[in-house]
Design goal:
With about 400 residues, the protein is of the alpha/beta class. The protein is built from 14 helices and twelve strands. Helix 5 packs across helix 9 and helix 11 runs parallel beside helix 14. The model has no long low-confidence stretch (mean pLDDT about 95).
Length: about 400
Amino acid sequence: MPVAAKIRDFMEQGSWIRKMFEEGIALRMEHGEENVFDLSLGNPVVEPPTEFFLKLNEVINDSQKGMHRYMPNAGFDDTRGAVASQLNDETGYSFSSSDIVMTCGAGGALNVVFKTILDPGDEVVIFAPFFVEYMFYVDNHGGKCEVVNPDEKFMPNMDMLRSKIGARTRAVLINSPNNPTGALYSPEILSQVSEIIMDKEAEFSSEIYLISDEPYRKIIYDGAEYPHIFSHHARSIVATSHSKDLALPGERIGYIAVHPEYSGKEEFIDGLVFCNRTLGFVNAPAMMQRVVASLQAVTIDIGHYQSKRDILYDELANIGYSVFKPQGAFYMFPASPIDDDVRFVEDLKEHRVLAVPGTGFGMPGYFRLSYCLEDRVIQGAFEGLNAAFSTYS
């Protein structure tokens, strides 16, 4: 057989977004680009800010020697220092360059973290609905995921969280603002999660990390402030990227930030650097490190996404969908009008609207819509969303 049985199974489990992408190509070939409304992908339509292109041009034309050679596996010290300085401004903590490891995006960051902390059979607690790759990232390094279900507002079920943390738990992974719901965890929620973690650390005489996957950290709406995790748990780790806040998903540039007051951070950082190298990433791309160093306080215009959120949310509510209004990111997660979310997504496809079933995010009965798209695509989907809903209403 061409691939391992486990990988074949994983490919089937994680194929929903890819499946919709391929079906979108087929529909566009059949009906024309302007008649297909693909809301399945989170590929930002907003272009990077002007500052990015100015800095990129400067870096490209810099002919000093050594610009494209190897650097320390953790990244350029000045880039790490720039990240640390921005985190100092945002959090009030005293980060230094030694608390930062530059990575190949947030996906690379999470894999480096899991490789560093997991022994075979260790567990990572994740919250549904979740980015499906989490399961595969954890499995890459011999671990397994324990899933906690949400309440009606997509906040963690704290009783279930308490029951899911055991002697083999090494980390609790959060994603806020969340993909696919857009829910933002409040300081109160973070405090509750951390208190449970610390209770369980005492119960099992263990160390449990609180890991925050934050690629949407700067994409939040209605004037909300982002609640950082560092004031809640000493063993806090951030894995993030500039894929969304600078609209650079194809450049694969991100970082890991470790709580500056974590008592075991010296060995931990050494482990991260070792794993960054031996997983084959070696180091984050040199050119992008130099570019983003000066852009830590720069973000795309969030107003574009907030406007798109409002347009889509208002229309879904008018049609009759039950839908949570996102506080951040650029996804919406309406309840399907029938229990079978996969069937309903197929119904939408008949109206040339592409979505992703909630089953693909560990939460059947819902479906995900992306709105990081051109307005014509969002508005063009309204007729199909209405027609499919009306079939069951």
